[in-house]
UniProtKB/TrEMBL annotation:
Pfam families: HMG-CoA_red (PF00368)
Any one Gene Ontology BP term: coenzyme A metabolic process
EC number of this enzyme: 1.1.1.88
Pathway this chain belongs to: Metabolic intermediate metabolism; (R)-mevalonate degradation; (S)-3-hydroxy-3-methylglutaryl-CoA from (R)-mevalonate: step 1/1
Keywords (A to Z) from UniProt: NAD, Oxidoreductase
Annotated PROSITE patterns: HMG_COA_REDUCTASE_4 (PS50065)
Descriptive protein name: 3-hydroxy-3-methylglutaryl coenzyme A reductase
Amino acid sequence: MPGFEKFYEKTLQQRWETLQQQGVLSEEQLCYLKNKIYAPDLGNSMIENYITDYTLPEGISFHYLIDGRNYLVPMVTEEPSVIAASSHGARMVQKAGGFKTKVEQRLMIGQIVIEDFQDYADLKRQIEKEQTAILKVANEAHYSLVTRGGGARWLRCRQLADDLMSVDLAVDVQEAMGANMLNTMLEATADYIQTKLASKVLMSILSNFATECLTTAECSLPLSALTKGNLSGKEIGQKIVQASRVAQLDPYRAATHNKGIMNGIDAVVLATGNDWRAIESGAHTFAVKNGQYRGLSQWEIDDHHLKGRIELPLPVGRVGGSIGIVPLVKINQQIMNVRSARELQSIIASVGLSQNLAALYTLTSEGIQRGHMRLQLKSLALAAGAKTAELKQVLDVMIKKNEHNLAAAKEVVAEIRR
Ligand code: NDP
């Protein structure tokens, strides 16, 4: 774009000047950008064409009792009511004994895609015969992982089309998410396969469909704990089960059911410096693994209890990527007092289930809007320019007038300032 040539080579100061010279931002706006910077060297080293830091609010969710341990859970989100709902769901489960979780294994899968072969069965046989040598090549490409107790574990072949196959390599990535480490190992392995087996490699890259890194969280609540107003605990429990069925039957509902779950999951993934795009893509692929997109959690009822279960891939790390670089991530790990990547998976899955419980409980009892109204009005009032000190007054007037839109919020702000 004219005027922005070699933007990536400019210093931060020069980038700001360019934005001003090109008439994109005023001096006042540039000042805002400059003041928002929290660690210029950090940002500049993490991404390209860096100009400022974009901040999101962080809060703590309470009442998490997971596998007998209590946790404070930091959450980063811009959406009102996510943290309140998370704490609400967690408190209901805490009173009933807490979440129980399971992480059977932590393997990441990478793919080496081979094209233009003549005989799939023959190539598969050759690759399987070479398995030990191939795993050795992979391990030598990132040997420090082996010294930590991790490394390549197995491989498998899958035919994708007449001329395409995937060699899947499973790697124990220990405490990291492992994407970069795995990609290094895959490239070395791909070279070996290409040379040794005269195969044509199209590409090699990790898969975010982390089927060998699944986490489950479960909870069981006495029906008596669900009672609300005129509705008995049993009635609410039955409605939650029906809502859960709808998310298994109908992709329109499943998408929203899972969005609610990801409200909590993404917020913890972000707070812990993990790659939320990786978690999102893995979760949604897992949700459609049987050919239809379904809810990631399910609820059932017996005579006395409502039981919930969530299962999803959670390839998160406690080290690596931006985790060791961003100071706030270290602080958040300390707030959580999380000791391993497996433990982090357990917390995140529990947050997803808690968020889902809170959402279904509200949806099937009072409806979502009543509880959200004040929070939404607050967002409208802030968007209308209300100062923190004016918020209560603005909200009270808006509720009284029963007008919930930006124009009304602006009017009320102007009115109370008159
Ligand atoms: P890194 O490249 O940072 O590798 C992990 C680092 O952690 C290594 O340097 C390793 O040290 C170190 N480490 C220290 N202690 C341990 C331990 N106990 N277990 C394991 N490693 C340890 O990050 P990842 O490989 O985890 O990759 C994650 C990053 O990759 C994320 O930023 C993600 O966004 C990005 N990414 C994601 C992709 C995707 O999802 N499709 C694709 C490409 C990148 P040593 O070197 O000594 O082994």
